[in-house]
Amino acid sequence: MNAQDLLKMFDGEALRALAPLMALTIGLLLVLLAGVFPLGRAVRSLLVVASLVVSGVLHANLLLGGKTPGTVLAGTFASTPTTAVWGVLFVLSTLFAWLYSVRYYEEDAPFKNEHDVLMLAAPIGMMLMAGARDLIVFFIGLELLSIPLYALAAFRRDRARSVEAGLKYFLLGAFAAGFFLYGSALVYSATGSLSLDMLSSESARAALATPMGLVGVALIAASVFFKVSVFPFHLWVPDVYEGAPTPVTALMATGTKAAGFAFLMSALVLLPVSTASTVALIAILTMAAGNFGALAQQDVKRMLAYSGIAHAGTLLLAVAGSIKDVPARDAAVQASLVYMAAYVATAAGAFGLLALLERDGSPTTLDSLKGLAQRRPYVAAALTLFMLSLGGIPATGGFLGKYLVFSVAVRSELTAFAIVGVLLSVVALGYYLRVIIAMYMQSPDANTVVGEPRPASGAATLASIVCAALVLATGVLPGWLLNLT
Amino acid sequence: MSAILFYVLAVVALLGAAGVILAKSPMGSVISLLGTFFALAVIYLLAGFQFLAAAQILVYAGAILVLFLFVIMLLNLGAMGSRFELSFAPLQSGRARLAAAIAMALALIGLVAAQRASLKALAEPAADAPALDSLRGIALELFGRYSLPFQAVSVLLLATMVAVIVLAKRQRAGEHGSGEGAQ
């Protein structure tokens, strides 16, 4: 590479590919600057929403506006229709989490400005992860996503649970980052490259199948599996999800998972075909760990954390399918996009409604949900919809995603795994229905703590309506989403 | 000659790393870390990466370690125990031993894998691999192929700075929180 190539690298296509990230970066800087001046909350909210919306529109423009730039910047970053859909999902999950956070904290809570800055940094990291064609870019994206989340998990420094969540997440996340770097070093030693495109060449794939290459890939996979909470790296999830402020939990559950799977889908070249059954087995174990763990929970927030583990397992089955059957890869990418689209709307909505209930002063236990249908009928109705979607009932988005994932698994001749997966999904209905039963068919005991219903903020109402609409739209009229992906 | 030097330096780097964990006083940890940094810098020199070696000394030994020292002195942690006393307390519990054993096993697997691949079979860097032994080569790589990660790191550092402020800044009296930074 010489100086002339440098100039050619930064052309219009590169700019178009990076524009969504730049919009968020500029928004982040403006929000940070706005904290210096006494501008008040309205300006800050406007900046946050505007930068997220602009970034989302730029992604939509890439998706709908004809040709996408493809791989740019010397092969380190890719902007394809797939990454554009992922980008929209990242923006949505951040937007939902932010909307639910608007009146979640106390009126005089400190560092509100910094909270918004960190929330805007996380999706930049997710977009880097989804578009990365080079392991270095991916690593920086991973850290740019993780570090704000460590701080956000511990954001309520006056609560021991929150600080504990932040510390746990940080220590384990730092280990995972170390695994990733060690793995990348081994992959580089084995193949001489960190670029995903070069790693997909025949000679590089042979080098990856050597012991050193395999150990490297396994370490990288372990680090990504940690982030998306796959067995046996899922043990941190319940504690961190429960301790973190609920809007932050929503961002962790939806955004981190989406970014991790976006990378897994684009980095499949790393995994040799022979690993397909192993990955499928891990997927089944993850589903089992999540579903049986959730059955035992009394706290709905913890239950949703375990349910998130189970969903990661289901999605991993699509990854396993596309490892085994290369021609099925497009179908697997579509399945994962649809699955995550439904999951982002559903999980963000479910966690967001829990945040609303917490604001009422109610704990998030099953007991305190009893009789919610009388106290807050709309919240109960929306929560019912989200629970049904998480359980994969037809006419909700969750069903469509599950259907696509299992059909990918069957097409790739992982039928046995798919059958076990479907059975485990039936187990899952047990705990989702329990929430609905508590809300509609049981009344609170004398000693149950229930919240005092307070009017929800406009932002949270808007987020709930959009989430519910998305869940229904993907379930009832799946055509538009299938066309987009 | 350079092979002998490499092994000596590698042992020094590893001993320093162990010292960071095992030293009883934080000051001892910092000094051990300094040893590791210097040994690494000389290893970079041996491999022909002068710029990297200089950056290692300037940035890590020069700036980051001094920052550590400041923190230790400001928090008055320097007085805990003798500087050269070692403590094996981190390895007392069964769980810690298990974790250490797993970590060592992983490292061993890596080593054995590297051995089996034998050093000769290590892949040659790709044909367009950068010439990192000159400032020009480094600049072209940094602002060329790695310009995206280079710029993304600046956003990452900014976000990290904000995150650290959120976690560590002392809150004024009357606001929420105990007034103590999260450790």
Q: What is the string of SSEs of chain B from the N terminus onward? A: HHHHHH
Taking Cα atoms only, what radius of gyration of chain A do you get, to the nearest Å?
22 Å
Order of helices and strands of chain A: HHHEEHHHHHHHHHHHHHHHHHHH
Our measurement of the CA-to-CA distance between the termini of chain B, rounded to an integer number of angstroms, reads: 46 Å
CATH uppermost class of the largest domain in chain B: Mainly Alpha
Short description:
The complex is a heterodimer of chains A (485) and B (183). With 485 residues, chain A is mainly alpha-helical. Chain A is built from 22 helices and two strands.
Features of the shown structure:
heterodimer; A: 485 residues; mainly alpha; two-stranded antiparallel sheet; B: 183 residues; Four Helix Bundle (Hemerythrin (Met), subunit A); 67% helix; 0% strand
Overview of this structure, please?
The complex is a heterodimer of chains A (485) and B (183). With 485 residues, chain A is an all-alpha fold. Chain A has 22 helices and 2 strands. Chain A has a two-stranded antiparallel ribbon. In chain A, a hairpin with a 4-residue loop joins strand 1 and strand 2. Chain A is globular and about 70 Å long. The two termini of chain A are 36 Å apart. With 183 residues, chain B is mostly helical. Chain B has helices spanning 2-22, 26-46, 50-74, 94-117, 135-143, 147-168. Chain B is globular and about 50 Å long. Chain B starts with a helix and ends in a 15-residue tail after the last helix. Chains A and B meet through helix 1, helix 2, helix 5, helix 6 and helix 7 of A and helix 4, helix 5 and helix 6 of B.
